[in-house]
Design goal:
alpha/beta, seven-stranded mixed β-sheet, two-stranded antiparallel ribbon, 8 helices, about 30% helix, about 25% strand, globular, binds S-adenosylmethionine
Length: about 210
């Protein structure tokens, strides 16, 4: 059922869903393997879709952790609500761009782990920048952020498909960006693991692309 929901939403709004099928278990595993999950108190997931990564994340998070899940798509959000009953999860039906408001409203000041499946390549540069500008103040030197990006690397720019390289973008925000390829996914994907070694830098407008 969730596969049907996923494909149908992908056909309806591809630029938001940014994928044709949910992530494979191999991609989900790679997205989580470098996160400091054993010591995580607060985790955030951006773009949970039908929960391919969420379920794996919950299997690994400690009992006293909280997972804030941001999902903008109404059908995916409803699907997550039906399928996840775990007191550690706060499902939030809004854009990841509202994370600062949503986290502060819940008294959160620090986030240990962030898993993002957002189609960053499909977001206008200004939105991407706003997202990182809001996220970085919540991170500390042991926080880890992961993001995947399909290896074809395509993005829409003014209605045209163009190739986008994710690593340079992430390096503008993080001190360390490591990547690996997960072949067992449709399509195969780069998984980026990003860390800050210092207090988040001031984010100037020159970072917008
Ligand atoms: C590529 S899919 C990944 C879904 C799932 N995590 C997986 O790996 O199968 C991207 C997801 O991000 C959601 N999304 C896109 N833009 C968003 C935004 N600004 N805020 C929150 N969710 C967003 C889409 O609705 C979709 O569920």
């Amino acid at each position: 059922m969730s596969l049907k929901t996923f494909v149908s939403e992908a056909l309806t709004d591809f630029s938001t869903v940014a994928a044709v099928t949910p992530s494979s278990k191999y991609l989900a595993h790679a997205m989580l393997e470098h996160l400091p999950l054993a010591g995580t108190r607060v985790a955030v997931e951006f773009g949970a879709g039908t929960g391919a990564i969420t379920h794996e994340l919950l299997a690994q998070l400690p009992r006293n952790a909280t997972l804030f899940v941001f999902e903008i798509n109404r059908r995916f959000y409803d699907c997550l609500r039906r399928n996840i009953s775990d007191s550690r999860v706060a499902l939030i039906h809004t854009s990841a761009e509202n994370l600062d408001i949503e986290l502060r409203r819940r008294g959160v000041q620090r986030v240990d782990a962030v898993v993002s499946s957002l189609g960053l390549a499909f977001m206008p540069g200004r939105e991407r920048h706003a997202l990182f500008q809001k996220l970085l103040p919540f991170l500390h030197e042991r926080s880890v952020f992961t993001q995947y990006h399909y290896i074809h690397g395509l993005q829409f720019v003014e209605g045209r498909l163009r190739q986008m390289h994710m690593a340079p973008l992430l390096r503008r925000y993080f001190d360390s960006v490591e990547s690996k390829i997960v072949w067992r996914n449709l399509p195969p994907a780069h998984v980026f693991t990003c860390r800050m070694h210092r207090t988040p830098r001031h984010l100037g407008s020159s970072l917008i692309t």
